[in-house]
């Protein structure tokens, strides 16, 4: 087991990363009160709920559960309210703990509920998807969607502890595993060429679900995000680097309709586009671009998107939050493994990078 | 105009207190972005919305409004969501400002919306009831009710500025004015004998709506709360003093059904009960007790409640949040103008204090 400490001002919490974590032992110091509400969904509950209930009961805690329906479309205020209903119906008070057991959807909703119930109660996160392990574990973002926008309503809420158990990834659908690998590749491409080399060597193991390799990848990814977030807690600068591939990816997701492609899949193509534009700008070599495409393909992720009319693609891109005052800012690679936030690129090259990575007739 | 600065760690904000405040001039430094959402209700909107819209338009801001239905029963998640709907339908972004124009209900809901929209946007408070001026202006508590409990869901959110305009109190129903005076008397009784003397001299002016007297009372009250909250931001100790009269009052409110009596009215009787118990304990004199009753009556507030079966009264009292581990802690007066948090009182005297201040047959 590896332990990563996330340092954020006066808040500091550990992420325990390993396989078959001894949760009973590890949980103990992080729950002061008696009551623990486990928030999960109807896919994850049959798989892992019992384990957590048992561990908590052994710790002499009173547990209750709130089992939401599975899916991003249930990440809304109505389902958030079901968590409040459960907390209050169970007579939970301000000393209680909310434990999120599930992927990013559950983590975001349970975290927001923990931030808001009684104006803030203890929050513990058990991310059970690779994506949520490497992304939701660090940064404290929680929230819900609104019909008019994703993640529009929420809070910053740091967990008191995070458990990332690789063994739980064994039940994850392969497409979801690859979606998580997409964000892992992102960390390598934006700031760690050595990690990229490591991934190139270990990708076969990762896609096969090798728990030791996964743990190492999760550890390195969380460490990267933790460092970037700590440097820029309020999202003024460096944190934008985490959006490598996301402006392009956002356009793909929006055009196809959220849910058609997984976020990680759209980001994968987005990273290819960012790499291609960086190449056209003369910043990375043909070989570098090939390496980007290759690692993405090794992770069973797409390297091109369906055909999307350019004007629509561009308009979706500029709806993206990273657009300030009408100017598009992109995260591009000045060299492989070193991304920057920049407005200084050739717009025609950008268009070319988009078009080059679409597959006609799809 | 008087200005009170509330100091809370790295957050510091002014409360402007006066009559006919020059809001256009005063608002200017506190709104960086272009968009301002005014949240108000259908009672307050016809009275004051135009004034604020005009001032904001003169400042070159884009305004929109969200007019909720008036009443505590609308302080719920459905109406909170109407604020989010309005923000998103108007295309508001994370640089926007939410301005609460109304009493405590509007302040609590708009504040929670400001805390949660985009995980936090600028918040400005214009409390238009006396109660919200002296209570909601300081402390940063925001939130909504749940069918199973009041104020169960919310956030701590400090405003960037508060405007308390005495002129707006001219339209307030007299009962609501008195309810605000109840909390003002509380500040005097819990920690400021000199303020009590001042109130005794000025109560006729206050109930008549004298704006200068009201401004002084609001200033002193907010200063008291600010000092107490700053000493105890996380509600571990001293802040409980602010609950003088509230454990008894809570029982009265609960028994009668929320909304029958105003909160300030129930607290008024609660303060009499606390004073009577303090007297029975030998801590304050007969004359002191008479002074407490007199100032409360001067404010047109009740000094006794309807008959409530003692066992029910006690059971409602112990549902109160200030009960720790089954022991009732009360805020009592060690001397007049000096309250303490204590478990050291005679329970029979407590029962007697309750019974002595009920009116049989009501
Ligand atoms: N808070 C943050 O910082 C942050 C970061 C990234 C993404 N997110 C959010 O996270 C969400 C995406 O997260 P996600 O990719 O984990 O999606 P998800 O939570 O929808 O999980 C994907 C699917 O896998 C299932 N699943 C989860 N764990 C499983 C397991 N161990 N075995 C089998 N199936 C399992 C889920 O039930 C779901 O069907 C989005 O809502 C996004 O906005 C938040
Ligand atoms: N956040 C805090 O720290 C805090 C503190 C105390 C109370 N509260 C909350 O505040 C609420 C009570 O506040 P309240 O007493 O202001 O109640 P309120 O907001 O319901 O206002 C009382 C009534 O007066 C009306 N009104 C408001 N301003 C008016 C004006 N200028 N002229 C005419 N009518 C006007 C309102 O529409 C309402 O009908 C409760 O929900 C309570 O939980 C919060
Ligand atoms: Zn992402
Ligand atoms: Zn009160």
Automatic annotation (TrEMBL), chains A, B:
Pathway: Metabolic intermediate biosynthesis; chorismate biosynthesis; chorismate from D-erythrose 4-phosphate and phosphoenolpyruvate: step 2/7. Keywords: Amino-acid biosynthesis, Aromatic amino acid biosynthesis, Cobalt, Cytoplasm, Lyase, Metal-binding, NAD, Nucleotide-binding, Zinc. It is an enzyme of class 4 (lyase). Residues 66-178 form the 3-dehydroquinate synthase N-terminal domain. GO terms for cellular component: cytoplasm. Residues 180-323 form the 3-dehydroquinate synthase C-terminal domain. GO terms for biological process: amino acid biosynthetic process; aromatic amino acid family biosynthetic process; chorismate biosynthetic process. It is found in: Cytoplasm. InterPro entries: Dehydroquinate_synthase, DHQ_synth_AroB, DHQ_synth_fam, DHQS/DOIS_N, DHQS_C. Binds 1 divalent metal cation per subunit. Can use either Co(2+) or Zn(2+). Belongs to the sugar phosphate cyclases superfamily. Dehydroquinate synthase family. Catalyzes the conversion of 3-deoxy-D-arabino-heptulosonate 7-phosphate (DAHP) to dehydroquinate (DHQ). This is 3-dehydroquinate synthase. It comes from Acinetobacter nectaris CIP 110549. The gene is aroB.
